[in-house]
Specification:
15 helices, globular, disordered N terminus
């Protein structure tokens, strides 16, 4: 659930609504709740960062149940089809997160990501989902964010402290963000995306979604399936999972990626840990971190926790960047144990607020609310059993922990997919994805048999499209010509994966 192509550290000219007689009049096929106060066109201008792309905004309701209420500006970017004579239509894109910028993806990443054929035949259109990037971002107090207690409470008192913090943070973010904070869920994003379709003047869209962007695609197909020409989803989210299933499956896929790393290191002489018992080195390093003996090489005063190290590993598994991970682990292992020191706050002044959309989106999309320490401890123990070396999935665990203390009501709760009107949807997923478990993709496919085709990539890593000619051609042929891979198709791993 991470944007594409990030380092380890660290649409046609817009017109009136399709089918509308005049501004403010809904087409017969459009859903109720349209408002004449929303702006239905996009004022395109060259993007400041790259004038070969166009940028603009679309004014939309904060609350689709109250379309005449407050509004926000949805940030949009497009790259027009390079060969207008062969143009198929628009390709809406979302790179995941929750929290990744579709505008940045369209402007910065799309030219390197998509093949020349896709760029020639589609207007590639990215948007920042509400609460993200330039679309009225969710903002929270920097000082409060820096005070987060451990997401691994050891008793009821620490659990209560975490719940109190989450409630205080939620109130703080709502205060800094305004009403949109309560409407940052993916179902609201889906309604925004259909409004974008109308503003682009398109009866049907094409969509490419990655990671958390697949949830946007899945739910768009549920709500507006007849408005899709083609949809390709990579690294798929299964939104039917309960708390235990979500956490355990996330832990299991992180653990699987760890074992893939160990196997690679065992057979690869260039691995910095080659010839050693990689699992023993790893377990020993995390044990030292538990004792406060491992410090950040770049900030020696800061002790690294086992969770810090595991999170670095998960990010490396996304690539996978196994060489970098092996070098990192070997370097930490070779450093002499340091005495435990008190944490020291940075003297650099932080801005008063900073963007923090993840909890606002995740906690409105998932009903995951441990009620007390006993329930939370059972979930954590289940994670540890599924991932004894990775100790669960750091990102999934933190996401779930961030919802403790939130209200029980969820805008967009989990459910089995019910897609009835969409055309065939193409799904791709790595067998050894560290974040979006292949089991998730398989389960989504089972829920939508007759509507989806699943093509496994039999290798490692999180992004799938550019893994090989096989994965890229499967998506390109489908998007351009609607050629659907035959059932049972798969793509072999590339390189040493």
């Amino acid at each position: 659930m991470q944007p594409l192509f990030r380092a380890l550290t660290g649409v046609l000219a817009a017109g009136l609504l399709a089918g509308s007689a005049m501004p403010g009049v809904a087409a017969a096929s459009d859903p109720p709740g349209r408002s004449s106060t929303t702006r239905e066109t996009i004022d395109w201008k060259p993007c400041p960062k790259d004038t070969t792309a166009d940028c603009g905004t679309l004014r939309l309701p904060v609350d689709w149940a109250r379309p005449s209420g407050e509004t926000f500006d949805l940030a949009v970017a497009r790259r027009k089809a390079a060969d207008p004579g062969r143009r198929v239509g628009v390709l809406l894109v979302n790179p995941g997160g929750p929290g990744a910028s579709g505008v940045e993806f369209a402007v910065d990443d799309a030219p390197a990501h998509f093949s020349a054929d896709i760029q020639e035949r589609f207007d590639i259109v990215g948007f920042d989902p509400r609460g993200v990037g330039s679309s009225h971002p969710v903002k929270c107090s920097s000082e409060l964010l820096d005070q987060q207690p451990s997401v691994y409470p050891r008793n009821q008192a620490e659990f209560d402290r975490l719940a109190d913090f989450n409630r205080a943070l939620r109130a703080d973010c709502r205060r800094h963000t305004g009403p949109l904070f309560d409407h940052a869920d993916t179902l609201s994003v889906v309604r925004d995306m259909d409004a974008l379709r109308r503003a682009l003047g398109e009866k049907k869209i094409n969509y490419f979604g990655h990671s958390y962007g697949t949830l946007i695609g899945e739910q768009y197909a549920e709500e507006y399936g007849d408005r899709i020409r083609a949809m390709a989803l990579t690294a798929n989210i299964d939104h039917s999972l309960g708390a235990r299933e979500f956490l355990v499956s996330s832990a299991a896929t992180a653990e699987d990626s760890f074992h893939q790393f160990v196997k690679w290191c065992d057979r690869t002489s260039s691995c910095a840990l080659h010839g050693r018992d990689v699992t023993a080195v790893w377990d020993g390093l995390l044990a030292r971190a538990d004792r406060g003996e491992v410090h950040d090489p770049e900030s020696p005063d800061r002790a690294l926790t086992a969770n810090d190290i595991a999170l670095f590993a998960v990010k490396a598994f996304y690539g996978p960047y196994w060489d970098e991970l092996a070098t990192y682990v070997a370097g930490l292992d070779a450093r002499k144990p340091a005495e435990r020191r008190g944490s020291e706050r940075s003297q650099q002044a932080d801005p008063e607020t900073r963007a923090e959309p993840f909890p606002a989106v995740f906690c409105q999309d998932w009903r995951i609310r441990a009620k007390d320490y006993r329930e939370y401890a059972r979930l954590t123990q289940a994670e540890l059993r599924a991932a004894p070396h990775m100790r669960g999935s750091p990102r999934a665990h933190k996401g779930a922990a961030g919802c403790i203390g939130w209200p029980d009501e969820v805008n967009n709760p989990q459910h089995r997919l019910r897609i009835t009107e969409a055309p065939t949807i193409l799904m791709l997923n790595s067998l050894h994805d560290p974040a979006s478990s292949f089991a998730w993709a398989a389960n989504v496919h089972r829920q939508t048999r007759g509507t989806t085709v699943l093509v496994p990539y039999a290798g490692a890593g999180h992004s799938v499209y550019n893994r090989s000619d096989c994965t890229r051609d499967a998506v390109d042929d489908y998007l351009t010509e609607l050629r659907i891979p035959s059932a049972g198709s798969s793509c072999a791993p590339t390189g040493t994966h």
